[in-house]
Amino acid sequence: MSKRPLDKTDIAILAALYKDARMNNKDIAELVGLAPSTCLERIKKLQSELVIKGAQLNVDFQALGGNIQVMISIRLADHSRTTINTFQKQLALLPEVISLYHMGGENDFLLHASLGDTEHLRDFVFNAITARKEVNHVETALIYDQINGTVLPKV
Amino acid sequence: MSKRPLDKTDIAILAALYKDARMNNKDIAELVGLAPSTCLERIKKLQSELVIKGAQLNVDFQALGGNIQVMISIRLADHSRTTINTFQKQLALLPEVISLYHMGGENDFLLHASLGDTEHLRDFVFNAITARKEVNHVETALIYDQINGTVLPKV
DNA sequence: GTTGAAACAATGTGGCG
DNA sequence: CGCCACATTGTTTCAAC
């Protein structure tokens, strides 16, 4: 991945798409003050350079039956690469999992999940996490609310 | 927010857009087996019902000078609504902040941030967090790696 | 829920600063 | 070399069914 410095226009494009990834090219072009063709060229370039890695929908998990969200801190007994990799790959596939962070520090993983109710949460923690031999410690914290940052300046 | 039950097609549309929010309507329609017009109608409906709350770009933070990502656990001294709200609103505006979670449990907030280097991290923690009178305890953990879940079944 | 036509956006080419 | 204008192709969108 090259380290091309991004100019103001690139940042403006990224900021626009960060706020609304479904914005169309014509509107972005207008917003950043470029002709549509030029703007598209830049977006394509950012994509090919993997500065833009994709785009994800913000779904209302509640509408999908996920009435509670939690962060689960997990410590493993064994920190070998295979254990970590296997754990990570298998857990990321579970439908309850929104994100799985591999961490440095006391806890090895932080798991962001959406669950239907507290019973579902209990079952999930037991069946998917504490049932695993390599898991040493689990701590669940409820998420009340999430706010996303809006901008990406820093250049 | 109404609680209309989503059918298989709605879920399929959401799943497609969750994987790639920039997918166009024609391709989604084809994928889920609908005519483009019908598919668009459903997407519009999901948007107006706020099942779809938006879409966010997956940016390579490294390309933007964010070489490290951290999760910072924060405890406040005072849990009044005003203190919490003010803290949340002000911190969410900082350019380093990716997400800010208001939590139940021991820690009041979990802050996901992207920083240029360790010095930037140190300054950020001091200036933006520990410098605040209402902050009681701060704990920073490095993120090695993040995996996002791929599907949203659960209906 | 579909089809089809008109309106609009995406995209490639060639030309300008 | 990056930008723009324009022409072509493809997508969105709305009406009638």
From TrEMBL, chains A, B:
- Residues forming the HTH asnC-type domain are 6-67
Q: Where are the transmembrane segments?
A: none
> Mind telling me which Pfam families this protein's record contains?
AsnC_trans_reg, HTH_AsnC-type
Its BP terms in the Gene Ontology are: regulation of DNA-templated transcription; response to amino acid
Gene Ontology cellular component terms for the protein in this record: cytosol
Superkingdom of origin organism: Bacteria
Q: Which GO terms describe its molecular function?
A: sequence-specific DNA binding
Keywords annotated in UniProt = DNA-binding, Transcription, Transcription regulation
Q: Which PANTHER family match?
A: LEUCINE-RESPONSIVE REGULATORY PROTEIN, POSSIBLE TRANSCRIPTIONAL REGULATORY PROTEIN (PROBABLY LRP_ASNC-FAMILY)
Put simply, this protein is called: AsnC family transcriptional regulator
